[in-house]
Write a sequence for this structure.
């Protein structure tokens, strides 16, 4: 526990460095991002909700991040959570739910909805997690607003500005078909923003990896349909932003010469070449997210290098042809080697790689092939960097356990058992011997927690109670909580009774059957 005056000074310093105006308005909304400031401040959705609330007459929205738990305060005016009329949570990742549980408990707010009377503020939730598996939140929050916030707020703004009473507020929100709540008698329909109006940074974060970046969205969703990925299934449809609109926003709204372009597949943005040329002319710097191997051309890499890019991230995911067909990511061995060579030739000195293991149908030989692939990549990257630039370059590899996600074709598969994980982990440990390569392999306990939350069942509230009653020690919690559902395929999926999938369920099942056929063959 930190002394209260230090917490006050900490958040005053953030507010001063950001230069945010202190919001004023009759209705006070606490907006929580259940993670630390560095992570919260780089989330465009969180910033966008904050911006919309504070652009509304009569509303004063203040942010809560979880750099502290007890005695935590809002950034803007250093208020306690219980001083607000409405508590709103922006939540995008499953593990953040545990942070929310811990924070509510530390603030003396009962974590279960049923234990909070009318003297507690209403608690609402939005964010990407609401369209994936709302079961994870339904016992905690009073109501879930499912989907994109722009159309949601257009429909509900007057309900927020006219706020008088908790029960009336919740009752008014329940009338919308994008709302999810306990006891509902219909499927919620996620709100979708078809406007293609990009969201962008409204606050300059003062610390963290993104502290000097002006972030702007170039696309939403993903045009590809990798069978394991929530973005391609749960964040549909794919929507692209007009390049001229991005230029206009950067020209008129940016607070920095360092521009972060947000897109699930950066290399596939229409008009990308034009945008890069324009940024070069303007002497800007750029930061990009993961790039698809089949879209990376040497000309693009050379322009990215001119724009200050020092690291390229590519996600091959799997190595063997059978697993590529399984996840529906068809990239050839030669393509990956060619791209690695081009990155090294260009002089971009850092390479990040993402892989998945413990997929259904994966054999030991597939894991051995992955190690061999990464060794070859390392050799190519080091050799070309040495010959062309007289340095070795650095490679970072992240290898994650396959985790079945709701409303994807691969949701029906179980999590790998620990003995199989251990056998494959032992083989992957060879990666740690490769020079100039740093390798992070997901621990099995992390995969278990992620799977428990991702595929949360109706008993998930028990996990939250065990978590509180065992001093937030997850190792102890797992001794009491029944999480056997992560290891079976025929379990009931509660999210299917709460929200209508954006990609039709019958089509998801067809894709799952194709997965089974590929594994059998």
């Amino acid at each position: 526990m930190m002394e209260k005056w230090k917490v006050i000074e900490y958040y005053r310093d953030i507010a001063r460095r950001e230069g945010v105006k202190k919001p004023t308005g009759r209705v006070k909304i606490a907006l929580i991002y259940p993670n630390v400031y560095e992570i919260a401040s780089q989330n465009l959705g969180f910033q966008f909700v904050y911006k919309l609330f504070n652009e509304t007459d009569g509303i004063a929205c203040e942010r809560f991040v979880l750099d502290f738990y007890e005695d935590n305060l809002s950034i803007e005016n250093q208020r306690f959570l219980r001083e607000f009329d409405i508590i709103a949570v922006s939540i995008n990742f499953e593990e953040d739910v545990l942070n929310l549980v811990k924070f509510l408990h530390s603030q003396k707010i009962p974590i279960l909805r049923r234990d909070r009377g009318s003297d507690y503020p209403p608690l609402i939730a939005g964010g990407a997690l609401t369209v994936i598996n709302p079961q994870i939140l339904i016992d905690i929050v009073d109501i879930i607003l499912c989907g994109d916030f722009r159309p949601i707020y257009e429909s509900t703004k007057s309900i927020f500005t006219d706020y008088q009473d908790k029960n009336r507020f919740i009752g008014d929100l329940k009338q919308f078909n994008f709302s999810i709540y306990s006891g509902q008698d219909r499927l919620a329909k996620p709100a979708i923003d078809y406007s293609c109006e990009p969201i962008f940074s409204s606050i300059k974060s003062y610390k963290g990896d993104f502290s000097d970046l002006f972030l702007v969205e170039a696309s939403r969703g993903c045009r590809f349909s990798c069978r394991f990925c929530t973005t391609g299934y749960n964040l549909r449809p794919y929507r692209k932003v007009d390049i001229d609109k991005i230029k206009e926003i950067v020209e008129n709204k940016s607070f920095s010469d360092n521009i972060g372009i947000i897109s699930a597949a950066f290399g596939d943005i229409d008009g990308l070449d034009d945008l890069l040329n324009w940024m070069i002319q303007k002497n800007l710097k750029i930061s990009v997210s993961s790039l698809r191997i089949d879209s990376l051309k040497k000309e693009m890499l050379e322009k990215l290098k001119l724009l200050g890019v020092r690291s390229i991230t590519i996600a091959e995911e799997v190595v063997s042809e059978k697993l590529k067909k399984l996840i529906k990511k068809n990239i050839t061995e030669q393509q990956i080697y060619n791209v690695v060579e081009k990155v090294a030739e260009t002089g971009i000195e850092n390479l990040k790689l993402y892989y998945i293991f413990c997929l259904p149908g994966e054999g030991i030989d597939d894991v051995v092939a992955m190690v061999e692939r990464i060794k070859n990549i390392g050799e190519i990257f080091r050799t070309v960097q040495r010959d062309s630039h007289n340095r070795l370059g650095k490679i970072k590899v992240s290898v994650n356990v396959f985790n079945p996600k709701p409303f994807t074709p691969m949701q029906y598969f179980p999590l790998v058992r620990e003995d199989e994980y251990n056998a494959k982990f032992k083989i992957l440990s060879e990666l740690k011997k490769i020079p100039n390569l740093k390798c992070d392999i997901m621990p099995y306990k992390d995969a278990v927690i992620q799977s428990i939350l991702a595929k949360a069942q109706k008993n998930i509230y028990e996990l939250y109670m065990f978590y509180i009653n065992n001093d937030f020690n997850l190792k102890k919690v797992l001794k009491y909580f029944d999480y056997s559902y992560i290891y079976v395929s025929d379990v009931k999926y509660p999210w299917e009774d709460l929200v209508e999938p954006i990609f039709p369920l019958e089509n998801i099942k067809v894709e799952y059957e194709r997965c089974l056929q590929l594994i059998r063959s």
About this structure: The radius of gyration is 23 Å. Residues 364-389 form the longest helix (26 residues). The chain has a mean pLDDT of 94.
